[in-house]
Design goal:
Blueprint lengths: L7 E5 L6 E4 L5 E6 L4 H10 L1 H11 L16 H27 L6 E4 L6 E3 L5 E4 L7 H13 L8 H10 L3 H9 L8
Parallel strand pairs: 1-3, 4-6
Antiparallel strand pairs: 2-3, 5-6
Helix pairs in contact: 3-4, 4-5
Length: 188
Amino acid sequence: MMREIKYTLKLSKRAKRLRLAVYCDGAVVLTAPYSAGQNFISQFIVKNREWILKKLESFRPFTSKAHQPWAGKVSNRKLFIKHKTQALALAQNRIEYFNRFYNFSFKKINIRNQKTRWGSCSKKGNLNFNYKISLLSPAHADYIIVHELCHLNEFNHSRNFWNLVSKTVPNHLEIRKQLKHGYMLHRC
């Protein structure tokens, strides 16, 4: 008997093609343009079935509560409230430190409760971070903070952007890979 793959379908006006993401918590998210038909979407899932199962299996060691300090019986909302102040203090402190190198202008720092994003930078100059940055290792949190800080100058992922990031986080490629693959190296 074949294992059913449960996934969340997100329809997007901006999507031009199907995008499949498997997260370390076991969530499978398929983003599709509104024009994609259900039959096409189903075929896409079937076609990528082995890849999805392989990804889910690779994340199995990281889905335990020991590797995800925010997992467990406590609600996500309660954890957000508990760690929001700590995350804001961390973000403010590290932005102050790293901005000595960059000297970029920004408006506000916000802490959010997001499922799939570590951070974002708005065109208005607001920096947004997931509260879970306070649960990461210092190197991982610093990378996320520097990444968003550099978007104040380069609102893209061009070579210039990555050159800016590498000024203060020279091992950014390694850290990006770890975050992408769900290595949640939290503070002890």
